[in-house]
Amino acid sequence: MARNYPGGTPLSVLTTQPLDGPLDYLAPEGGAALGAFVKVPLGPRQVLGVIWGEAQGDYPVEKLRPITAVVDVPPMRADMQDFLMKTGAYTLTPLYQMLRMTMRVPGLADPPGDRTVYQKGSSAPDRMTDARARVIDVLEEDPDKLYYPKELADMAGVSASVVKGLADQGVLLPRSAPRDAPYTKLDPSRPGKTLSDSQKDAVDALRAKSDQRFSCTLLQGVTGSGKTEVYLEAVAECLARGQQALVLLPEIALTVDFLDRVEARFGARPAEWHYGVTMTERRRCWRMVAQNGAQLVVGARSALYLPFANLGLIVVDEEHDSSYKQEDGVFYSARDMAVMRASIAGAQVILASATPALETWVNAEAGKYDRVVLDRRFGAAELPEMVPLDLREEEMSAQSWISPRLAQEIDRRLEAGEQSLLFLNRRGYAPITVCRVCGYQVGCDHCDARMVEHRFRGELMCHQCGETKDKPKTCPSCGIEDRFAPIGPGVERLAEEATARFPEARIALLSSDLMLSGQRLREHIKSIAEGEADVIIGTQLVAKGHNFPLLTCVGVIDADLGLQGGDLRAAERTFQLIRQVAGRAGRADRRGTAYIQTHQPEHPVIKAIISGEEEAFWRAEAEARRSAGVPPFGRLAGVVISGQNLSQVQGVAQAMARSAGPLHAIGAEVFGPAPAPIARIRGRHRMRLLVRSAKDPRLQGALSLWRDGVTIPSQVRVSIDIDPQSFY
Ligand code: ADP
Ligand code: ZN
Fold first, then answer.
1. Which of 109, 417, 534, 647 has its CA 20 to 30 A from that of 55?
2. Nearest-CA neighbor of 118 among 169, 68, 66, 49?
3. Cα–Cα distance measured from residue 89 to residue 170, given in angstroms and rounded to the nearest whole number
4. Whose CA is closest to atom 24 on ligand 1?
5. 261 Cα nearest atom in ligand 1
6. What is the DSSP string of 365-387?
7. pTM for this entry
8. CB 222: neighbour CB atoms within 10 A?
9. 484 Cβ closer than 6 Å to some ligand 1 atom
């Protein structure tokens, strides 16, 4: 039980307002618990906050104002307080901003409300239809049960209007029920799939961890080995102990497959937490997580900040995925934060991947994490064959990106009724729009970036700031009309080529630009997986774990793309992405093949991708990082100084470079300042500094001393990214 403070006790309250720390108030009449969510007066306003502890006492007690009201939700637990303080300190984020991450939920302060639910009545419908019969079937399974209208429609697989029609006729009786109802119980004792011997061994190894207070295990299994089946058993174990589990997925489009599998395994769907979920469902999820009314949550990275009452397991699926790194507002790595959350809460962590992040692999090698390996595909399925296609030897016609050899292979699959996937990690139609007369390239007005043509949307778009404009008719540089040409391919242009080359085939494009809602995107992917397309064309959206059972041929259009740019993780990312995409090919009955188009088949990364010698690749990559003293062996912090006024930005950057004493004192080096690779975004100029240090826990302290030692005008923003993933 949380500590209870009697009315009138001086307390400190952390609010979500941008202040240095908690403020002192008096406990309300009737008292309040440590961690309680409260409303407090701040100047003329009422703001939300959390009782953080006893008053700091630097303010006279007789001047303290009382807490206005206690919000009717369970108090924040001590382990969450601890988590916020530790992650705030690690990422150099002020505590109020960390608190906002946990309170990002609609209607937190609203009293619990009611909404209409339905129960089976005694009258029969005037006319029976298939749809109506399905609803009645669901109702008859358990006549006492109450259903939300939408829930009932979903369970019966009918539209909302069918349910409404039945309600209008009195077949369904309206009742009033709390808005935030517990989720349907999951039953971990239902039998799961019959596991293979190696899967069983993996499950046993994971189960053995549950005796420990905390553990972190890398579940490293090739694509199709059954990692999901295996970690669902760990989830089952956790639920059977009466604890809550959280599964993080990198992409909401993946959830449909996962939800189905959870339902097959546990008899009901889990709670969901991501941007595709409605406000009422988010509110319900947050509250039920706090009240132990949700056993399993599947979510995006922000689900780590949900107020779990009794957390027993966190699974980070596709743990290498770069979308786990948030680089907006609070800079954090959800993978690392999951480990921290579990270590504080006393829970198990499973990091699942076919191609782990180098950091994770090194931690497993060093014995810091346990490792469980699944090195074969489930059943008779074999890993795809990897075939390099040397573009220097293929006859490529102008404006064409599918080599004759690859085209032949796709033709063969079309004849056999199998699916092919063409992978190109470039959104839009063409990355460059150039004037053929003078060479002028259309750029963004606010960023140092080219505008990318999007034909599907019918406009040019900046991938930095999202700004759009029409394709210009007249060149602003030479004044000549209608001479703009697209240069290079994006997926939309590749789809155009495929349509021309395979006129009989059904072509499906999968990219985040389709402007589909989460639900529609999931349906789109599902229908493709069920065979609604012959050739799939996709960005990295398709690399992420979705199963396409009919897919036997993968063509990587440009394997060299990610190797340019000299990013610290270029090799690692390329390796992961292409191995993942290739892993989409081939299932039990037919072996798949991945064709890798490249101009440099002799490049060590391309060779490692083709040979599949993953351990050798990670070992070499780790060695290179070790000798360069960069992560995971050393630490980096990326610093971006930005503002509208260039000379002000330069001034701050130079002042920071000059006053790096606190960093030098711990032996860290400071590089720069230099204009950032993208020197302007949304009209703000950007300069970069890079800090490199040994793995030294004093780094954060030194960084904040450094930042606080420089006068920063209010128009200039300094953001520090610990363990940066990108360097633009
Ligand atoms: P991974 O996550 O490692 O890529 P999955 O868990 O998605 O692998 O499994 C790949 C496919 O094999 C899925 O369609 C899954 O249902 C099937 N599969 C894996 N293990 C089993 C099993 N023990 N019994 C039946 N099907 C299985
Ligand atoms: Zn822009």
1. 109
2. 169
3. 58
4. 193
5. 16
6. HTTSSEEEEE-S-STT--PPEEE
7. 0.85
8. 21
9. no
Substitution candidate for ligand 1 out of 229, 255, 256, 530 with most atoms within 8 A of CB: 229
Q: Which helix (H) or strand (E) holds 420?
A: strand 419-423
Q: Which of 411, 405, 450 is nearest to 431 (CA)?
A: 450
Could you read off the pLDDT of 274-325 as tens digits, one per residue? 887 777 788 899 999 999 999 999 999 999 999 999 999 999 999 999 889 8
Beta strands in 308-361 (DSSP E): 311-317, 325-328, 330-333, 348-353
Among protein residues, the one with the nearest Cα to ligand 1's atom 9 is: 226
Is the CB of 586 inside a 6 Å radius of any atom of ligand 1?
no
Task: Assess whether pLDDT exceeds 70 at residue 106.
Answer: yes
Nearest to 317 by CA among 271, 363, 275, 349: 349
pLDDT mean over 126-130: 88
**Sign of torsion over alpha carbons 486, 489, 492, 497:** positive
651-703: per-residue pLDDT in tens? 999 999 999 999 999 999 999 898 888 899 999 999 999 999 998 999 999 99
Q: Is 221 in the pocket of ligand 1 (CB under 6 A)?
A: yes
A 10 A CB-CB count for 695 gives: 10
- For 513-659, strand residue ranges (E) read 535-538, 551-556, 593-598, 634-643
Return the closest-CA partner of residue 407 out of 395, 417, 398.
Answer: 395
- In whole angstroms, how far apart are CA 541 and each of 17, 492, 514, 595? 37, 14, 12, 19
pLDDT band, residue 376 (cuts 50/70/90)? confident
